[in-house]
Amino acid sequence: MQTSAQQVGEIVGKVSGTNGLPLEGVTIEAKGDVLPKPRTAESKANGSFRLQLLPPGNYEVTFTTASGETRTVSVSVFLDQTTPLNVQLNAGDVENIVVYGDSLTTSTNAALGNSLNAETLAQLPMFVEYSSLIRLMPGVQVTSDSVRGPSAGASGQDNGFRFDGANLSVPLFGILASSPSTHDVAHVSVERGGARAVGFNRNAGVTLNTESKSGTDEFTGDVTYRLQKGSWQAEDKDGLSTEDDIDFITVGVGGPIIPEQLYFYGSYYTRDDSKESGTNARGALPDITNEREEYFGKVTWTPTADILVNASYRTSEVTSSNQSIGINDTASTAENGIDDFEVIVFDASWIINDDTTLNISYADTTQSTGSFPVNDLGFRGQVNGNLDVNDLASQGLFFVPSLETRTGADAQEQALVDAFNAGAAPLISAFGIDGEALGAVGGASTVNDNRYLGNTFEVSLNHIIETDTMTHELHFGYQEEEGAEELFRVSNGWGSIAYWGGLDFDDGGLVAPDGDPVPVGTIYRATVQTRGFDAGGLTGPLVSKTKSKTIAVNDTIFWDDFIFDVGFLLSQDELIGQGLRPANTSSGYEEARGNPYVMKKVDFSETFQPRMTATWNYSYTASAFVSFARYNPAVSSLARAASWDRNTGGSTTFVYFDENGGFLDSETNISSTGKLFADGLNPRTMQEFIIGHQMEWGNNWNIRNHLRYRRSWNYWEDTNNNARIVYDAADYQSRLASFGDLYPDIVAAANAGQLDSPEPKELYVPVNNLVGEGTYVIAQLDGAYTKYLEASMEFDYRSESFFTTTSVVWSHYYGNFDQDGTTRFNNDQGTFIGSSNIADSWYGQLWGSFTDGKMRADRTWQLKSFGAYQLPWNASLGYLAYWQSGHTWAHQWPSTFYLEPRGSRRTPSHWQIDLNYTQNFDVSDDYSVQLRLDVFNIFDRQTGYNPQPRYNSDDLGEYRSYENPRRVQATVSLRF
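Structure (tokenized):
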């Protein structure tokens, strides 16, 4: 069960007598620790009953027969799940109550989902941050990336993250906006496939949802102190050596305001990262700080037994200093940062009658982020301004150049290379490290000041229709969601500065600038933010918005031993940019700086997303299921990436200088401008098929396995309007001729015409008043696709003192469009979705190199297991262990041009074990003390990943990132 608009679960079952016949008229009452007023239901003629809209928690379910006999059963309700409870009553003997279907798995129907409660989480090794919850989810890859999410058959930007139902994903980018502390988490659930049309799940990846703690009918609370000392951490292989002490303090308290009607819960969380001066390749680093304060409050109200209301507010403030210093960069390149986050959530449910319920919710989120150079250079580069070549470290972020080496260069080419190296050598001597061309100097290139705003409104109606042979659960839902970004970005000095040394690098590095577009005599090039550059125009923020409306209709049919789900989603998406207005022109628009406009609208008729599942419960303890689902993901960065005001206020501009730093010319970065959309674009689509089986084995085991197939297509990207015309087989032959010695296969492919552009060879958008033949436009890339195959087995075991969940997954993720591999050699970024480096210029076209192959996130095998053992002395020992294959990579030229088949290389596999020991001391009936020790990566497996893929780099194949080292976290809690 996946519910919408309400963070709940339900209990469903049947009541029978000793003869096995159904009992009608039995009163069932559920009283929970987080539900102020009990919920009641009555068994029907077939013995069935349903206790709906129950907040996740522990419940005492009491059955009362017509004769007045009562029996009570304890069960747990999980988030987004149905708890089965089939009870056989014997009026004469309480010991003869038999509960069937108390499944160890928390997955229900054909959805691939799992749910864990706070009691389980407390026994497992966990970090404090929300993102650590994903590590525990069965079948989901573990990633050490700090920005991108894990892949489960889709991009790391295709996931959904929710807290109390509020969307935590960054609008337009699909990454986690903020990482609240997990100390408030009472329940967590994940859905990684097989979504029904109950709720509004349009994510092509995994959807993680959490429910916060609530007050109970007793006053309870805790005060917790956690410590991670830098001296407890193993030496880090990433080249940055710091003594990193992290303190965490959390305080939580809850209880009744009005007994059996109104409960409250509140908490405070603070984190202080104190990093003593460490070192990198250039020597001592300044102290690094990262401080956080977070407040949370929640009330739960049941004005009547049939109405439940929750309201919560969370605010978090993070301040940091001396961040983002690379291993080869000077300390002056550091940044200070802020990250403030607020979320308001309101939800309410009403059990209108035994057959009908109404749910409503609203969530509002605001995130303010910024990064500010520690070394503020005090000016913004402007037209006709000069570059002080005698003091480059005061002009921006200057990257130390590398010497050029060429094999087989003719005399003219060698002369250009010699001249380049003659100018580069003194720069390497002045700014490199011990004569090596490493790192950057100066100040951080950019001032960033962003706000992300999101709000979601949901309402749903559920109605049950029962006949003699079947039951229908009808679900009707409606959702409105809006996301916005307010971006203000300017350059620090001249931004980032590169030495060009008289070579036009856009033409392969062996051609002298000829003025088209690089001016003759160019020795340096700066990349500045156009906003703040006096040729740019706008001075205020660039505002980008997305608006979505979704309708959900579903019928869950119970018939004999079968459960069928038949439903669909319909969605409407609007991308709203800035800088155009409708006009009687050939394009239908004219320029209007600062004016909002709907740049693209995808209507309901284009987004039919059917969802169909069938589950056969062929015994009390086993079932088989099949599922079909189609998703049209809503997340897209095009509201900003294609906004027309990027031409004048939100993109980057290239500025060219001569050998003395004299201003030569400037030009807008053509791939970072506003763009029009081609006609006939179909929304991005992901389609999924699942077949599976689950069963209980004995009294302790539950086994679940499945096969899954996913296919995605209709990828949108920005590209040259004439890409299919000018980038043909002959063009690739001439460009790749010099690679014959190192990469003969791609030269042979080019010569054989295998890199020819597809039919039809025509413009994407007709030439008009805004678009020319070479202008960048938004197009649907011909033949772009991904596919994903998965075979998975999950094992749950539970005894009186031990529980464990283990998953084994084989998968294959392949295609020619890799959202996870579009960054410029650093995967851990929230890149543009719909405007990445794919299809930028000739080298990024999908037909341009060995683009068909394994995706970066392809990891063939994954084994994950977690669990805990209850020790006899009021303690527990928990663990998380996993092993997974490495990610794929290949030699590349620019960022999206492959010189050998995509994914033909793979990084080493990684395994690690995390442990938790928790010791409880009962001081009195009302007070207890808990001590816990978490050890992460106890064998210090710092496996390398993210290798340098650029063929002409001296560091080709060397790992630029490593798995986190062994760390220890000590915790003490006072509970009352």
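Confidence is low (pLDDT under 50) at residues 1-5, 91-108. The longest helix spans residues 411-431.
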